[in-house]
Automatic annotation (TrEMBL):
SUPFAM superfamilies: Aldolase. Pathway: Carbohydrate degradation; 2-deoxy-D-ribose 1-phosphate degradation; D-glyceraldehyde 3-phosphate and acetaldehyde from 2-deoxy-alpha-D-ribose 1-phosphate: step 2/2. This is Deoxyribose-phosphate aldolase. Transmembrane segments: none annotated. Its main location: cytoplasm. PANTHER family: DEOXYRIBOSE-PHOSPHATE ALDOLASE. GO terms for biological process: 2-deoxyribose 1-phosphate catabolic process; carbohydrate catabolic process; deoxyribonucleotide catabolic process. It comes from Corynebacterium lactis RW2-5. One of its GO terms (molecular function) is deoxyribose-phosphate aldolase activity. Keywords: Cytoplasm, Lyase, Schiff base. It catalyses: 2-deoxy-D-ribose 5-phosphate = D-glyceraldehyde 3-phosphate + acetaldehyde.
């Protein structure tokens, strides 16, 4: 079993409900600091925020549908970084993957990559909505465009969230060259450990406290 402290340092402690208030974000930051998570992940409208030293700030762009123009995602990412984000989780245009337009997919990821040089870029491929072949191709496009991570899910898609199968496929595709973030529907310590065993190097969690308590 992975240690509690090690798992905490893999967690993006997440609050992306659209009704979340600045007070909710302050509570999230306090909880993240207490739990020792790697980062918080919040909506870009909540930036900028102040966090304790050692706690990183992640945000999302094109969230949750991904169905906006690449230049809008790039502008949103650049603004988020200007507002203090260190990591950006972008949602792909899922239709590009479903239509096997992987050159277009790579181009939109590249547009965001170019907009935030030196910052961490995670690419949300919404794996539950894709076939295995589409997961592999989307992961390859992410790597070719210079992403730092591929990520399973927004947690908002009706097809579902992370699966160990998708995480394993993504890890096999990107090897040790990129990180793999499992996110969406991970609510127990057992589920978190299953994702880590499948190859996840980062976890997007809102139930971080309960999951870490289950590792003690």
């Amino acid at each position: 079993m992975t240690s509690r402290a090690d798992v905490a340092q893999m967690i993006d402690h997440t609050l992306l409900k659209p009704e979340s208030t600045p007070e909710d974000v302050k509570a999230l930051i306090a909880e993240a600091a207490e739990l020792g998570t790697y980062s918080i992940c919040i909506s870009p409208s909540q930036l900028p925020v102040e966090v304790p030293e050692g706690l990183h700030i992640a945000t999302v762009v094109g969230f949750p549908s991904g169905a906006v123009k690449a230049e809008i995602k790039a502008a949103e990412a650049a603004r988020a970084v200007a507002d203090g984000a260190e990591e950006v989780d972008m949602v792909i245009n899922i239709a590009f993957a479903k239509e096997h337009r992987f050159d277009d997919l790579q181009a939109e990821i590249q547009a965001v990559r170019d907009a935030i040089p030196g910052k961490v870029l995670k690419v949300i491929i919404e794996s539950a909505a894709l076939t295995d072949e589409e997961i592999i191709a989307a992961s390859k496009a992410s790597e070719a465009a210079g992403a730092d991570f591929v990520k399973t899910s927004t947690g908002f898609h009706p097809a579902g969230g992370a699966s160990a199968h998708a995480v394993k496929l993504m890890r096999e595709t990107v090897g040790d060259r990129l990180g793999v973030k499992a996110s969406g529907g991970i609510r127990t310590a057992e589920a978190a450990e299953e994702m880590i065993a499948a190859g996840a190097s980062r976890l997007g969690l809102s139930a971080s406290a309960a999951i870490l308590a289950g590792l003690e």
